[in-house]
Fold this protein.
Amino acid sequence: MSPSPHRRRGIAGMSLIALLIVAVLLSLGFWQLQRRTAKHALIAALETRLAGAPTALPPPGEWAALTPAADEFRRVSFTATYAELPDAMVYSSGSAIREDVSGPGTWAFLPAQLPDGAMVVINAGFVPNTMQDRAYQDRIVRPLHVGQPVALTGYLRFPEAGGLFTPNPDAAKRLWFSRDVPAMAAQLGWAGKVAPFYIDLETPVPANLLPKPGPLGVHLRDQHLQYAVTWFGLAAAVGIAFLVWLWGQRRADVPQRRASRRIA
């Protein structure tokens, strides 16, 4: 006696569900392996760029062609004058690329004017524990406004817009929660041609160390292999559980088949 049509449909449905779950888990595992390969390539590229000698800042005519994949973290040197315009603070709970930065604070973002009149935004460095203190931030950045060109060396970075759960900027404190340079420029009146990137400053370092610039390092988390093993393990567990269930279904059919033979 073969299983009833209802039972066969149940087994077929469970087989399809198990197959889909295993396929999804395997795809997630292979995706993590792909991310691991890409992460290793990114780390190698970033280490090469961070360790390279600084080059000249690309001129405005080349700005549109710059991309994060090809140009993020390039070291550059140039001369600029901090503009007498409002600065912005960007809150951070720490830094993944600055070994000397830990704990909450803000990054000081200031517009600086190049000799040709174009504007580049400078992340002048970290100021600890200033999320709520606008007056203190003003005192910190005021000494940077010397009105004279300053030789700067830093790393070319690209803006990051806030996500769905990123708090809105605090206009009164000029406080942002993401490095959204275009939004800062629009709200704070950083007029003129503003670069589509910003500079994480390396040098010069102020005498009082605030804001605190510094060299960057690659400290990207690489746990993709562990994640891949987890997804593959779950896929194996689901597959084994399904086979055990299927074996149980077949065993349940044995008494029915024997009873059918006796009746016959």
The mean pLDDT is 87. The first strand starts at residue 55 and ends at 56. The CA atoms of residues 1 and 71 lie 70 Å apart. The longest helix spans residues 5-51.
